[in-house]
Q: What sequence folds into this?
């Protein structure tokens, strides 16, 4: 929370919304992509088992299988957060745990992390997978939206010049510096 406080800006991003939050707090992070992966994998492997109006979602009835709509909720927040260069900072966090456990009542501000090459390449993978699902269910318009966004993210992540390098101060710790590794992590 100290790092969020030290790096917070007054920039407003009114179109950045969505994604699932954790129990106990309302942050969004890259590990939520695991849920996206599970939902999209199930749909892509067995599309005949999924349809629109299977679940009671706000999006039910839009002609898209509900499982794809639910996966999109976990990806679209980051498409909305994508910067002009294609980078995506896949972490929304406040400066403390919620003041009120009801997200409708809690009014603290949330801040978007700087885009890293790692978070951006992760977003790229799931945006591309969502695009495949949209294509499979006949929504070429949405498939193209996410393919284009995924390609922009990929290009950003593959450029070592986009590695984050920043400094900030925390009163009880002094000046700190973060430099993203030059090499992207490899999958195991």
A:
């Amino acid at each position: 929370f100290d790092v969020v406080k030290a790096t917070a800006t007054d920039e407003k991003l009114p179109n950045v919304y969505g994604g699932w939050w954790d129990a106990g707090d309302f942050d969004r992070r890259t590990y939520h992509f695991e849920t996206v992966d599970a939902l999209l994998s199930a749909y892509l492997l067995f599309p005949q088992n999924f349809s629109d109006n299977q679940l009671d979602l706000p999006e039910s009835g839009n002609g898209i299988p509900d499982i794809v709509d639910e996966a999109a909720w976990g990806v679209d927040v980051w498409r909305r957060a994508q910067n002009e260069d294609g980078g995506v900072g896949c972490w929304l966090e406040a400066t403390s745990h919620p003041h009120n456990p009801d997200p409708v009542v809690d009014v603290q501000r949330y801040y978007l992390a700087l885009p890293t090459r790692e978070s951006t390449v992760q977003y790229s993978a799931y945006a591309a997978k969502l695009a495949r699902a949209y294509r499979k269910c006949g929504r070429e318009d949405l498939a193209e939206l996410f393919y284009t966004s995924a390609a922009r993210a990929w290009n950003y992540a593959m450029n070592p010049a986009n590695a984050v390098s920043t400094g900030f101060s925390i009163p009880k710790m002094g000046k700190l510096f973060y430099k993203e590794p030059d090499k992207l992590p490899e999958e195991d």
